[in-house]
Design goal:
Helix content is 21%, strand content 36%. It has helices spanning 49-57, 64-69, 76-80, 102-111, 160-169, and strands spanning 13-17, 23-27, 40-42, 85-93, 115-133, 136-154, 173-180, 186-188.
């Protein structure tokens, strides 16, 4: 039933009952001992789970231990930022008259195949500015606002260029854009203990 490298192979067999009262063969819980300390790894470009497992455990097939220690990620690919779902942030400005067509932008982008989520992010920062008043230079703190559109999409279905084109088609100007990635973020790399 389990491969020779399975974490469940050596566990003893037991019988449990399901909600309908059927008796089912299963395995006992795999209890892992408590270990003191914090074991973290900072994700770098090009990280792979099998390589991390080999560095930590001298066995590249034990990558699942890293997945067990990081349950907030739905897939091993998501943990390292290699899944097909990508989030980009695009700086936008609206040079036209009146209010920017934010509703149209969100509607048009979410209607495209592969786009999962669209958000408008206002980044307001306080900056020091100077102005001349009656011959004196006055320094004051003012606001500088920038707007970004963050788009989460499946890179297998949609390309960044198509997203930028859709934004520009509504009269927005687009500036720099960048991918929001997992590089530099931390994951837990558990110690080599057997439970």
């Amino acid at each position: 039933m389990f491969s020779k490298n399975s974490r469940y192979k050596k566990l003893s067999d037991t019988v449990t009952s399901d909600a309908q009262g059927r008796r089912l063969g299963s395995k006992t819980l795999r209890v892992v001992p408590d270990v003191a300390g914090t074991f973290q790894h900072t994700i770098e470009e090009g990280d792979r789970l099998d390589h991390l497992a080999y560095k930590a455990y001298k066995d590249s097939t034990r990558w699942w231990r890293i997945c067990d220690a990081n349950p907030e990620f739905m897939s091993p690919q998501a943990m390292l930022g290699k899944e097909p779902m990508v989030t980009i942030s695009i700086h936008v400005t609206f040079p036209g008259e009146g209010d920017p067509p934010w509703c149209d932008l969100i509607r048009n982008l979410t209607a495209r195949v592969g786009i999962e989520d669209v958000n408008i992010v206002d980044d307001i920062r306080l900056v020091e500015r100077e102005m001349e008043y009656e011959g004196d230079t006055i320094t004051y703190t003012g606001e500088r606002a920038t707007r970004n559109v963050t788009v989460t999409f499946n890179r297998m279905n949609t390309r960044k260029g198509a997203i930028v084109h859709e934004i520009r088609a509504l009269g927005f100007n687009t500036g720099e854009f960048y991918t929001i990635s997992r590089v530099g973020k931390k994951i837990i790399l558990p110690p080599d203990v057997v439970g």
